[in-house]
Amino acid sequence: MAKLWTVIKREFLERVRTRWFLIVTVFGPVFFGVIMVLPAYLSVRGMKDVRVADIRIIDATGTGLGDRVATRLNGGPMGDAAATQVVVVAPTDVAAAESLATKDVMAKTRRGYLVLDSLTISAQKATYAGRNASSLNEVQIIESALRSAILGQRLEKEGLDPKRVEALTRVKVDMSAERITDKGRGGSGIGSAIFGFMIAFLLYMMIVLYGQNILRGVLEEKTTRVAEVIVSSVSTDVLLAGKVIGVGAVGLLQQAVWLASAAGLYQFRAKIFVALGMPAMPAIPLPQVPPMLIVALVLFFILGYALYAALFAAVGAMVSSQEDANQAAQPVVMLLVFSIIFAQPVMLNPTSRLAEIVSWIPFSAPVIMPMRMSAIQIPWYELVGSLSGVAVTAAICVWLSARIYRVGLLMYGKRPNMRELARWIRQS
Has residue 81 got a pLDDT over 50? Predict the structure, then answer.
Protein backbone atom coordinates (compact mmCIF):
# COMPACT_ATOMS: atom_id res chain seq x y z
CA MET A 1 0.00 0.00 0.00
CA ALA A 2 2.87 2.37 0.77
CA LYS A 3 4.35 1.77 -2.69
CA LEU A 4 0.98 2.43 -4.31
CA TRP A 5 0.62 5.71 -2.44
CA THR A 6 4.14 6.69 -3.50
CA VAL A 7 3.33 6.10 -7.16
CA ILE A 8 0.02 8.01 -6.85
CA LYS A 9 1.74 10.93 -5.15
CA ARG A 10 4.48 11.01 -7.79
CA GLU A 11 2.03 10.95 -10.71
CA PHE A 12 -0.18 13.61 -9.11
CA LEU A 13 2.55 16.05 -8.12
CA GLU A 14 4.48 15.59 -11.35
CA ARG A 15 1.52 16.94 -13.32
CA VAL A 16 0.11 19.48 -10.87
CA ARG A 17 3.45 21.29 -10.49
CA THR A 18 3.87 21.88 -14.21
CA ARG A 19 3.36 25.37 -15.59
CA TRP A 20 1.10 23.99 -18.32
CA PHE A 21 -1.32 22.53 -15.76
CA LEU A 22 -1.57 25.85 -13.92
CA ILE A 23 -2.20 27.77 -17.14
CA VAL A 24 -4.88 25.37 -18.39
CA THR A 25 -6.58 25.12 -14.99
CA VAL A 26 -6.71 28.87 -14.37
CA PHE A 27 -7.43 30.09 -17.89
CA GLY A 28 -9.44 27.08 -19.12
CA PRO A 29 -12.84 28.54 -18.14
CA VAL A 30 -11.83 31.89 -19.65
CA PHE A 31 -10.88 30.16 -22.90
CA PHE A 32 -14.17 28.24 -23.14
CA GLY A 33 -16.07 31.41 -22.26
CA VAL A 34 -14.28 33.29 -25.03
CA ILE A 35 -14.99 30.66 -27.70
CA MET A 36 -18.68 30.76 -26.75
CA VAL A 37 -19.03 34.55 -26.52
CA LEU A 38 -16.59 35.67 -29.23
CA PRO A 39 -18.58 34.31 -32.23
CA ALA A 40 -21.73 36.07 -31.01
CA TYR A 41 -19.76 39.27 -30.38
CA LEU A 42 -18.19 39.19 -33.84
CA SER A 43 -21.59 38.53 -35.40
CA VAL A 44 -23.10 41.56 -33.66
CA ARG A 45 -20.19 43.79 -34.68
CA GLY A 46 -20.22 42.41 -38.21
CA MET A 47 -23.94 43.03 -38.67
CA LYS A 48 -23.40 46.73 -37.90
CA ASP A 49 -21.40 47.01 -41.14
CA VAL A 50 -23.93 45.13 -43.25
CA ARG A 51 -25.80 47.03 -45.96
CA VAL A 52 -28.40 44.55 -47.13
CA ALA A 53 -30.51 47.28 -48.73
CA ASP A 54 -27.69 48.23 -51.13
CA ILE A 55 -28.99 45.96 -53.88
CA ARG A 56 -30.91 46.26 -57.16
CA ILE A 57 -34.36 44.75 -57.55
CA ILE A 58 -35.35 43.73 -61.07
CA ASP A 59 -39.15 43.70 -60.98
CA ALA A 60 -40.84 41.94 -63.88
CA THR A 61 -44.08 41.13 -62.03
CA GLY A 62 -45.99 44.23 -63.10
CA THR A 63 -47.55 44.46 -59.64
CA GLY A 64 -45.19 46.83 -57.85
CA LEU A 65 -43.79 44.01 -55.69
CA GLY A 66 -40.26 45.37 -56.07
CA ASP A 67 -41.24 48.66 -54.45
CA ARG A 68 -42.75 46.78 -51.51
CA VAL A 69 -39.56 44.79 -50.98
CA ALA A 70 -37.44 47.94 -51.25
CA THR A 71 -39.59 49.70 -48.66
CA ARG A 72 -39.05 46.87 -46.20
CA LEU A 73 -35.30 46.68 -46.85
CA ASN A 74 -34.80 50.43 -46.59
CA GLY A 75 -36.77 50.59 -43.36
CA GLY A 76 -35.21 47.48 -41.85
CA PRO A 77 -32.43 47.31 -39.27
CA MET A 78 -29.75 47.05 -41.96
CA GLY A 79 -31.22 49.50 -44.47
CA ASP A 80 -30.55 53.08 -45.46
CA ALA A 81 -33.06 55.53 -46.85
CA ALA A 82 -33.65 54.88 -50.57
CA ALA A 83 -30.62 52.57 -50.75
CA THR A 84 -32.40 49.92 -52.79
CA GLN A 85 -32.71 50.52 -56.52
CA VAL A 86 -35.84 49.16 -58.21
CA VAL A 87 -35.78 48.57 -61.97
CA VAL A 88 -39.15 47.72 -63.53
CA VAL A 89 -38.74 45.72 -66.74
CA ALA A 90 -40.87 43.65 -69.07
CA PRO A 91 -40.67 39.85 -68.73
CA THR A 92 -38.78 39.66 -72.03
CA ASP A 93 -36.09 42.06 -70.81
CA VAL A 94 -35.16 40.21 -67.62
CA ALA A 95 -32.07 38.55 -69.14
CA ALA A 96 -30.61 41.85 -70.33
CA ALA A 97 -31.33 43.47 -66.96
CA GLU A 98 -29.58 40.59 -65.19
CA SER A 99 -26.51 40.94 -67.40
CA LEU A 100 -26.27 44.65 -66.66
CA ALA A 101 -26.79 44.07 -62.93
CA THR A 102 -24.05 41.42 -62.92
CA LYS A 103 -21.59 43.93 -64.40
CA ASP A 104 -22.51 46.46 -61.70
CA VAL A 105 -21.95 43.88 -58.96
CA MET A 106 -18.57 42.99 -60.47
CA ALA A 107 -17.72 46.72 -60.52
CA LYS A 108 -18.76 46.89 -56.83
CA THR A 109 -21.41 49.55 -57.38
CA ARG A 110 -24.05 47.21 -55.97
CA ARG A 111 -23.83 44.29 -53.55
CA GLY A 112 -26.26 42.15 -55.51
CA TYR A 113 -29.57 41.99 -57.34
CA LEU A 114 -32.93 40.32 -56.75
CA VAL A 115 -35.03 39.07 -59.69
CA LEU A 116 -38.83 39.04 -59.31
CA ASP A 117 -40.93 37.58 -62.12
CA SER A 118 -44.18 35.74 -62.70
CA LEU A 119 -42.97 32.73 -60.71
CA THR A 120 -42.56 34.98 -57.68
CA ILE A 121 -46.30 35.67 -57.72
CA SER A 122 -47.54 32.19 -58.64
CA ALA A 123 -45.00 29.89 -56.94
CA GLN A 124 -43.17 32.19 -54.48
CA LYS A 125 -39.85 31.69 -56.24
CA ALA A 126 -37.18 34.36 -56.65
CA THR A 127 -33.50 34.57 -57.55
CA TYR A 128 -30.79 36.52 -55.76
CA ALA A 129 -27.19 36.94 -56.93
CA GLY A 130 -24.47 39.00 -55.34
CA ARG A 131 -21.19 39.17 -53.51
CA ASN A 132 -22.99 38.49 -50.23
CA ALA A 133 -24.90 35.44 -51.49
CA SER A 134 -22.90 33.24 -49.11
CA SER A 135 -23.89 35.34 -46.09
CA LEU A 136 -26.75 33.41 -44.52
CA ASN A 137 -27.85 36.32 -42.34
CA GLU A 138 -28.05 38.81 -45.21
CA VAL A 139 -29.84 36.40 -47.54
CA GLN A 140 -32.30 35.60 -44.75
CA ILE A 141 -33.05 39.34 -44.28
CA ILE A 142 -33.76 39.73 -48.01
CA GLU A 143 -35.90 36.59 -48.01
CA SER A 144 -37.86 37.84 -44.99
CA ALA A 145 -38.48 41.20 -46.68
CA LEU A 146 -39.72 39.43 -49.82
CA ARG A 147 -41.99 37.14 -47.82
CA SER A 148 -43.47 40.09 -45.95
CA ALA A 149 -44.03 42.00 -49.21
CA ILE A 150 -45.83 39.06 -50.84
CA LEU A 151 -48.00 38.63 -47.74
CA GLY A 152 -48.89 42.33 -47.71
CA GLN A 153 -49.81 42.21 -51.39
CA ARG A 154 -52.06 39.21 -50.86
CA LEU A 155 -53.79 40.83 -47.91
CA GLU A 156 -54.49 43.95 -49.95
CA LYS A 157 -56.05 41.82 -52.70
CA GLU A 158 -58.38 40.34 -50.06
CA GLY A 159 -59.41 43.81 -49.00
CA LEU A 160 -57.49 43.87 -45.72
CA ASP A 161 -55.14 46.49 -44.36
CA PRO A 162 -51.68 44.82 -44.30
CA LYS A 163 -50.30 47.23 -41.69
CA ARG A 164 -53.14 46.43 -39.31
CA VAL A 165 -52.78 42.68 -39.85
CA GLU A 166 -49.01 42.85 -39.34
CA ALA A 167 -49.45 44.76 -36.07
CA LEU A 168 -51.92 42.17 -34.79
CA THR A 169 -49.96 39.10 -35.84
CA ARG A 170 -46.49 40.22 -34.72
CA VAL A 171 -46.62 38.74 -31.22
CA LYS A 172 -43.52 37.64 -29.32
CA VAL A 173 -44.06 34.86 -26.79
CA ASP A 174 -41.61 34.36 -23.95
CA MET A 175 -42.22 30.80 -22.78
CA SER A 176 -40.17 29.12 -20.06
CA ALA A 177 -39.79 25.36 -19.66
CA GLU A 178 -39.65 23.80 -16.20
CA ARG A 179 -38.95 20.21 -15.25
CA ILE A 180 -41.31 18.19 -13.07
CA THR A 181 -39.85 15.14 -11.34
CA ASP A 182 -41.24 12.64 -8.85
CA LYS A 183 -40.42 15.14 -6.11
CA GLY A 184 -42.14 18.09 -7.78
CA ARG A 185 -40.74 20.97 -9.78
CA GLY A 186 -37.10 20.53 -10.69
CA GLY A 187 -35.96 23.86 -12.13
CA SER A 188 -35.44 25.13 -15.66
CA GLY A 189 -35.68 22.56 -18.43
CA ILE A 190 -33.41 24.58 -20.77
CA GLY A 191 -30.89 25.05 -17.98
CA SER A 192 -30.91 21.31 -17.27
CA ALA A 193 -30.31 20.50 -20.94
CA ILE A 194 -27.39 22.95 -21.19
CA PHE A 195 -25.96 21.70 -17.90
CA GLY A 196 -26.22 18.09 -19.06
CA PHE A 197 -24.45 18.79 -22.36
CA MET A 198 -21.68 20.68 -20.57
CA ILE A 199 -21.18 17.79 -18.15
CA ALA A 200 -21.03 15.26 -21.00
CA PHE A 201 -18.56 17.39 -22.96
CA LEU A 202 -16.43 17.95 -19.87
CA LEU A 203 -16.28 14.23 -19.07
CA TYR A 204 -15.44 13.45 -22.68
CA MET A 205 -12.60 15.99 -22.73
CA MET A 206 -11.18 14.81 -19.41
CA ILE A 207 -11.19 11.17 -20.48
CA VAL A 208 -9.54 12.00 -23.80
CA LEU A 209 -6.91 14.34 -22.38
CA TYR A 210 -5.88 12.36 -19.32
CA GLY A 211 -6.25 8.98 -20.98
CA GLN A 212 -3.79 10.05 -23.66
CA ASN A 213 -1.66 11.59 -20.92
CA ILE A 214 -1.24 8.13 -19.43
CA LEU A 215 -0.39 6.71 -22.86
CA ARG A 216 2.36 9.28 -23.38
CA GLY A 217 3.67 8.77 -19.83
CA VAL A 218 3.93 5.01 -20.24
CA LEU A 219 5.52 5.37 -23.67
CA GLU A 220 8.06 7.90 -22.37
CA GLU A 221 9.05 5.69 -19.44
CA LYS A 222 9.39 2.73 -21.77
CA THR A 223 11.46 4.46 -24.46
CA THR A 224 13.78 6.13 -21.94
CA ARG A 225 14.25 2.80 -20.07
CA VAL A 226 13.03 4.40 -16.83
CA ALA A 227 10.45 1.63 -16.51
CA GLU A 228 13.21 -0.95 -16.15
CA VAL A 229 14.42 0.85 -13.04
CA ILE A 230 10.93 1.37 -11.58
CA VAL A 231 9.72 -2.22 -11.97
CA SER A 232 12.80 -3.44 -10.09
CA SER A 233 11.23 -2.05 -6.88
CA VAL A 234 7.52 -1.76 -7.74
CA SER A 235 5.33 -4.39 -9.36
CA THR A 236 3.72 -3.53 -12.69
CA ASP A 237 0.21 -3.88 -11.22
CA VAL A 238 1.00 -1.30 -8.52
CA LEU A 239 2.64 0.96 -11.10
CA LEU A 240 -0.39 0.78 -13.40
CA ALA A 241 -2.85 1.39 -10.54
CA GLY A 242 -0.80 4.32 -9.26
CA LYS A 243 -0.71 5.93 -12.68
CA VAL A 244 -4.44 5.58 -13.22
CA ILE A 245 -5.38 6.87 -9.77
CA GLY A 246 -2.83 9.69 -9.70
CA VAL A 247 -3.72 11.08 -13.12
CA GLY A 248 -7.42 10.65 -12.35
CA ALA A 249 -7.04 12.74 -9.20
CA VAL A 250 -5.49 15.49 -11.33
CA GLY A 251 -8.53 15.36 -13.60
CA LEU A 252 -10.97 15.62 -10.69
CA LEU A 253 -9.07 18.58 -9.26
CA GLN A 254 -9.12 20.37 -12.60
CA GLN A 255 -12.83 19.73 -13.08
CA ALA A 256 -13.60 21.13 -9.62
CA VAL A 257 -11.66 24.31 -10.39
CA TRP A 258 -13.32 24.67 -13.79
CA LEU A 259 -16.84 24.24 -12.40
CA ALA A 260 -16.21 26.78 -9.65
CA SER A 261 -14.77 29.26 -12.17
CA ALA A 262 -17.68 28.70 -14.58
CA ALA A 263 -20.16 29.44 -11.79
CA GLY A 264 -18.30 32.68 -11.03
CA LEU A 265 -18.31 33.76 -14.69
CA TYR A 266 -22.03 33.00 -14.90
CA GLN A 267 -22.73 35.31 -11.98
CA PHE A 268 -20.97 38.22 -13.73
CA ARG A 269 -22.31 37.47 -17.21
CA ALA A 270 -24.44 40.63 -17.37
CA LYS A 271 -21.47 42.95 -16.77
CA ILE A 272 -19.35 41.06 -19.31
CA PHE A 273 -22.01 41.33 -22.04
CA VAL A 274 -22.57 45.03 -21.32
CA ALA A 275 -18.83 45.71 -21.50
CA LEU A 276 -18.70 44.04 -24.92
CA GLY A 277 -21.69 46.03 -26.18
CA MET A 278 -23.81 42.92 -26.68
CA PRO A 279 -27.47 42.32 -25.83
CA ALA A 280 -27.99 41.09 -22.30
CA MET A 281 -27.93 37.33 -22.02
CA PRO A 282 -31.30 35.98 -20.85
CA ALA A 283 -31.26 34.70 -17.31
CA ILE A 284 -31.29 30.91 -17.35
CA PRO A 285 -31.90 29.55 -13.87
CA LEU A 286 -29.30 26.99 -12.90
CA PRO A 287 -30.78 23.52 -12.45
CA GLN A 288 -31.13 21.99 -9.03
CA VAL A 289 -28.34 19.43 -8.58
CA PRO A 290 -29.12 17.02 -5.73
CA PRO A 291 -26.23 15.37 -3.85
CA MET A 292 -27.02 11.94 -5.28
CA LEU A 293 -26.66 13.30 -8.80
CA ILE A 294 -23.22 14.68 -7.94
CA VAL A 295 -22.21 11.30 -6.51
CA ALA A 296 -23.43 9.52 -9.66
CA LEU A 297 -21.57 11.96 -11.91
CA VAL A 298 -18.35 11.40 -9.97
CA LEU A 299 -18.81 7.61 -10.14
CA PHE A 300 -19.38 7.70 -13.90
CA PHE A 301 -16.27 9.82 -14.35
CA ILE A 302 -14.13 7.55 -12.18
CA LEU A 303 -15.33 4.32 -13.80
CA GLY A 304 -15.26 5.72 -17.34
CA TYR A 305 -11.84 7.17 -16.79
CA ALA A 306 -10.54 3.89 -15.30
CA LEU A 307 -11.91 1.99 -18.30
CA TYR A 308 -10.27 4.17 -20.94
CA ALA A 309 -7.13 4.92 -18.92
CA ALA A 310 -6.43 1.18 -18.64
CA LEU A 311 -6.85 0.80 -22.40
CA PHE A 312 -4.55 3.74 -23.14
CA ALA A 313 -1.96 2.37 -20.69
CA ALA A 314 -2.07 -1.00 -22.45
CA VAL A 315 -1.56 0.73 -25.80
CA GLY A 316 1.43 2.61 -24.38
CA ALA A 317 2.98 -0.64 -23.17
CA MET A 318 2.41 -2.35 -26.54
CA VAL A 319 4.30 0.12 -28.72
CA SER A 320 7.80 1.56 -28.81
CA SER A 321 7.34 4.82 -30.76
CA GLN A 322 4.93 7.73 -30.97
CA GLU A 323 3.95 6.82 -34.54
CA ASP A 324 2.93 3.30 -33.50
CA ALA A 325 1.09 4.75 -30.48
CA ASN A 326 -1.02 7.02 -32.68
CA GLN A 327 -2.09 4.11 -34.83
CA ALA A 328 -2.65 1.65 -31.99
CA ALA A 329 -4.75 4.19 -30.03
CA GLN A 330 -7.20 4.74 -32.89
CA PRO A 331 -9.65 1.97 -31.82
CA VAL A 332 -9.78 3.39 -28.29
CA VAL A 333 -10.29 6.92 -29.59
CA MET A 334 -13.05 5.71 -31.91
CA LEU A 335 -14.92 4.27 -28.93
CA LEU A 336 -14.87 7.72 -27.36
CA VAL A 337 -15.89 9.42 -30.60
CA PHE A 338 -18.77 6.95 -30.85
CA SER A 339 -20.12 8.23 -27.55
CA ILE A 340 -19.89 11.95 -28.35
CA ILE A 341 -21.55 11.45 -31.76
CA PHE A 342 -24.81 10.63 -29.98
CA ALA A 343 -24.58 13.58 -27.57
CA GLN A 344 -26.71 15.96 -29.64
CA PRO A 345 -29.50 13.46 -30.51
CA VAL A 346 -29.68 12.41 -26.88
CA MET A 347 -29.75 16.02 -25.67
CA LEU A 348 -32.63 16.82 -28.06
CA ASN A 349 -34.62 13.77 -26.96
CA PRO A 350 -33.26 12.22 -23.73
CA THR A 351 -36.29 9.91 -23.36
CA SER A 352 -35.94 8.23 -26.78
CA ARG A 353 -35.10 4.58 -27.30
CA LEU A 354 -31.76 5.56 -28.84
CA ALA A 355 -30.84 7.46 -25.67
CA GLU A 356 -31.71 4.44 -23.52
CA ILE A 357 -29.70 2.01 -25.66
CA VAL A 358 -26.60 4.22 -25.79
CA SER A 359 -26.85 4.71 -22.02
CA TRP A 360 -26.54 0.95 -21.49
CA ILE A 361 -23.44 0.49 -23.67
CA PRO A 362 -20.48 0.55 -21.23
CA PHE A 363 -18.16 2.45 -23.56
CA SER A 364 -20.64 5.31 -24.15
CA ALA A 365 -22.51 5.30 -20.82
CA PRO A 366 -19.88 7.42 -18.95
CA VAL A 367 -20.63 10.30 -21.33
CA ILE A 368 -24.30 9.78 -22.28
CA MET A 369 -25.83 8.76 -18.95
CA PRO A 370 -24.61 11.85 -17.00
CA MET A 371 -26.16 14.03 -19.70
CA ARG A 372 -29.49 12.21 -19.47
CA MET A 373 -29.39 12.31 -15.67
CA SER A 374 -28.98 16.08 -15.76
CA ALA A 375 -31.87 16.53 -18.21
CA ILE A 376 -34.47 14.03 -16.97
CA GLN A 377 -35.10 11.78 -14.00
CA ILE A 378 -33.64 8.31 -14.58
CA PRO A 379 -35.22 5.27 -12.84
CA TRP A 380 -32.98 3.89 -10.12
CA TYR A 381 -32.76 0.44 -11.69
CA GLU A 382 -31.60 1.91 -15.01
CA LEU A 383 -28.99 4.00 -13.24
CA VAL A 384 -27.73 1.05 -11.18
CA GLY A 385 -27.67 -1.18 -14.26
CA SER A 386 -25.69 1.33 -16.29
CA LEU A 387 -23.21 1.91 -13.46
CA SER A 388 -22.82 -1.85 -12.95
CA GLY A 389 -22.19 -2.39 -16.65
CA VAL A 390 -19.52 0.29 -16.72
CA ALA A 391 -17.95 -1.06 -13.50
CA VAL A 392 -17.79 -4.66 -14.80
CA THR A 393 -16.41 -3.56 -18.17
CA ALA A 394 -13.85 -1.33 -16.45
CA ALA A 395 -12.77 -4.22 -14.23
CA ILE A 396 -12.33 -6.48 -17.25
CA CYS A 397 -10.37 -3.82 -19.14
CA VAL A 398 -8.15 -3.17 -16.13
CA TRP A 399 -7.53 -6.92 -15.71
CA LEU A 400 -6.61 -7.37 -19.39
CA SER A 401 -4.56 -4.17 -19.51
CA ALA A 402 -2.62 -5.15 -16.38
CA ARG A 403 -1.47 -8.34 -18.05
CA ILE A 404 -0.56 -6.62 -21.28
CA TYR A 405 1.17 -3.89 -19.29
CA ARG A 406 3.11 -6.47 -17.25
CA VAL A 407 4.66 -8.04 -20.34
CA GLY A 408 4.69 -5.18 -22.82
CA LEU A 409 6.40 -2.64 -20.55
CA LEU A 410 9.73 -4.39 -21.01
CA MET A 411 9.18 -5.48 -24.63
CA TYR A 412 10.71 -3.51 -27.48
CA GLY A 413 10.62 -3.72 -31.24
CA LYS A 414 7.66 -4.53 -33.49
CA ARG A 415 4.14 -3.89 -32.27
CA PRO A 416 2.48 -7.20 -31.25
CA ASN A 417 -0.45 -8.63 -33.18
CA MET A 418 -3.66 -10.02 -31.66
CA ARG A 419 -2.23 -13.56 -31.32
CA GLU A 420 0.80 -12.28 -29.42
CA LEU A 421 -1.42 -10.16 -27.15
CA ALA A 422 -3.49 -13.23 -26.33
CA ARG A 423 -0.30 -15.11 -25.47
CA TRP A 424 0.81 -12.23 -23.21
CA ILE A 425 -2.50 -12.36 -21.34
CA ARG A 426 -2.32 -16.15 -20.88
CA GLN A 427 1.30 -16.22 -19.79
CA SER A 428 1.08 -13.32 -17.32
Answer: no
List the Cα angle 57/62/63 in 5-degree steps: 90
210 and 115 share a domain?
no
Sign of CA dihedral 192, 193, 194, 196: positive
Distance between CA 137 and CA 142 in Å, rounded?
9
Q: Which helix (H) or strand (E) holds 128?
A: strand 127-130
Does 370 map to a domain?
yes
* Structural domain boundaries enclosing 254: 187-427
∠ CA(408), CA(412), CA(414), 5° rounding? 100
> Are residues 209 and 342 located together in one domain of the fold?
yes
**69: Cα within 13 Å, side-chain hemisphere:** 33
* Residue predicted with more confidence, 180 or 108: 108
Give the relative orientation of helices 365-375 and 330-341 as an angle to the nearest 10 degrees. 20
CATH of the domain at 141: 3.40.190
Counted domains in the chain:
2
| Predicted confidence (pLDDT) per residue in 161-173, tens digit | 766 766 655 555 5
Residue type, 32: F
pTM (global) more than 0.70:
no
